[in-house]
Amino acid sequence: MHAKRNSWSETFPLLGQQNRLQSLPTRLPSSVVGMTSATDAVIPPRPVFLGVNAGTASAHAGIFDESGKLLGSSSSPIQIWRDGNCIEQSSTDIWHAVCAAVRLACSKANVSGEEVKGLGFAATCSLVAVDADGSPVTVSWSGDSRRNVIVWMDHRAVEQAERINSSNSPVLQYCGGSLSPEMQPPKLLWVKENLPDTWSMVFRWMDLSDWLSYRATDEDTRSLCTIVCKWNYLGHAHMSQYNEKDSRNMEACGWDDDFWEEIGLRDLVDGHHAKIGRSVAFPGHPLGSGLTPEAAKEMGLVAGIPVGISLIDAHAGGVGVMESIPVQGSNSKEFDKETILHRMALVCGTSTCHMAVSRDKLFIPGVWGPFWSAMVPEYWLTEGGQSATGALLDHLIQNHVASPHLSNCAASQNVSVFDILNKLLESLMVDLKSPFLAALTEDIHILPDFHGNRSPISDPKAKGVIHGLTLDTSEQELAVLYLATVQAIAYGTRHIVEHCNSHGHKISTLLASGGLSKNSLFIQEHADITGCPIILPRERESVLLGAAILGAVAARKYSTLQEAMKALNAAGQVIYPSTNPKVKVYHDAKYRIFRELYEQQLSHRSIMAQALS
C-alpha cells in the first residue's frame, strides 16, 4: 500500500496551464450528426489504442487503430528551466500537458474515451522527485518546489559520474564501462551532496515514464526498461521469469547493493529499495487496476482502461519500428528470424538514440548496455547515442545572423526552416557547379560534440568544433553550415555503427524515426555516409506507436510485445545510399577529418592542462 496522495487536480498548475484541461468534444453518434438509414443507425465502437510521450519540449498523444494506423495526434508544450548545466521541469506541468494532448488527440481522431482500450506511456529518461503524498520536491538550487524534475540532458553531475566510474564496480560493464552524467545514480549523488533537505524529503525517485504510469494508476511498479538502462539495475536477474504464463509484478532482485554502498548511496537500499523500486515488470505488463477514476476524468477517458508498463521514449521508438518489413521483404520467412539482428533503430529528435539488439550479450566500450529485455523481450539491447542532434541544429541555425529572415520566409510559406535551407543548398549546387550537393562542405568540418560525446567515446567533457569559418554571414553560408552539421551528425552515427560492428554486431540496415527523420536531407546524408539503406516507418510517429503497443499488450490484444510489434509495425519509404562512387570517396575523406578533430582536441586539452599544472 502506498501512502494516500493529495488530489492532483488540487495542485495549482503553472502559469498559463489553468485552461489546458477544459473539455473537448468527443465523437457524436451518427444520429446526432445527421439523418441515418436503418442499416447504419448503430455504429459499433472502434477499439483503438492510445500512446503518450512526454518529450523534452512537449507532450504528445496519438490514437492508433488495430492495424497500427495513426488516426489523430496532438501535442502540448512543456515548460523548461535552464541555468548552466542545470536543466529542470515540473511533473505537474508535464501531467497537465499530457492530459491536454490526450484530449485533443481524441478530438482530432473523432474518438470517444469509451473506444480507447489500452494506454501506454513513454518519456525522456528524466528524474522525478516526489514526497510521501506524491507532491513535488524541488531538485533546484532555486528552491522552487515546482521544479522537481532533473531533465535527461542535465549535466550537473559530471563530477559525481567521474567518481562513480573510478570505483570500477562490476556493474559498470553493463553500461559500456562508465556511467554518463545523464544517468540517474550521478544525479542522485549530486542531490544528496548539494540539496540535503530535498534528499531527506523525497519518498520516491522515479524515471519520468514510470512516474506517468504511477500518476495514472497509483501503482508503483517500475519498468525493466527504465531501471536497467538508467539506474544500473541488472535485468538479466529475471531471465528465468519471462516465460512464466501469468505475467506479474516481480520483486526487484536485480539491484546490486554493494554498488550503491560503494558510491555513497547506501540509504537507497533501505526499505528493500522502496525509494527507487521494490517491484519491476516487463514493458506492456498491465498496471494495477488500470486508469484511476481521477486520471480518467483529467484525460477524458474511462476508468479502468489497461495501462501498460512504460518505456523510455527512444526505446518506444524502437518498439514502433524494429519489425517494419518493406513490401519486397514481406513474404520472407527468414526475415522474421534474423533480420532484426542486422538492424539499428535511430530515434532522432533533440538527441539521437541508436538501438540494436542481439541474442547474446555484447560488451562494447563506450556504448550503453548490454541491457537484457530493455526494449525487445529476451534480446540484449545495445544503446548508442548523440546527446545533441536536433538541439545542435537548432542552436547553430538560431544563433546565426541570417536566422530571423529565414524564419520569416519559412513562416510566410508555411514550411520549416529546414525546407528553406534544403532549397538553398540545391540552388547553391547549381550556381557553384558542385559535382554533388554534399561537396558544398569541402572547406568546413564540424565535430558535433557540443554537449559532450555519449557514444562511442563516452566523454562528457568533449566540445564542439567548427573548422573553416569565414566572415561570410549570408543565408548561403548558413545553409552550408547547416549541411556540414547534418553531415557531422551522420559521421557520428557511422562511428557508432562501425564501433558496434567491430564488437560483434552485424548492422547493415537503419530504421529512422522521430522529428529529424522527416527531413529528407538528414536521411539521405545518413544513408550516403553510413552506406546503409534507411527504412522509414509508415507512421512517422513511431514513439507514439511504441507507447500504444504497450497499451495493446496490456489490454491482452496480443500475448507478447514482439507479437504486437510484428502486427503493428509497418514500413514506408526506403532510402538507399548514393550509387555515385565519388560521393563515397568524398565522405570517407571527410570522415577521416571528423575522427581527427577529436584527437586534436585531446592533444590541445593535454597541452593546456600541462600549462596550468
Automatic annotation (TrEMBL):
UniProt KW keywords = Kinase, Transferase
Name of the protein described by the UniProt record = FGGY carbohydrate kinase domain-containing protein
What single Pfam family name could you report for this chain, choosing any that match? Answer: FGGY_N
Q: Which family does it belong to?
A: Belongs to the FGGY kinase family.
Q: Which GO terms describe its biological process?
A: pentose metabolic process
Q: Which gene encodes it?
A: LOC111436235
| Record bears the keyword Transferase | yes
Any one GO CC term of the record: cytoplasm
| Residue span, Carbohydrate kinase FGGY C-terminal domain | 344-555
What GO molecular function terms would the record report? D-ribulokinase activity
Domain Carbohydrate kinase FGGY N-terminal residue range list: 49-320
The species is Cucurbita moschata (Winter crookneck squash)
- InterPro entries associated with the record: ATPase_NBD, FGGY_C, FGGY_N, FGGY_RbtK-like
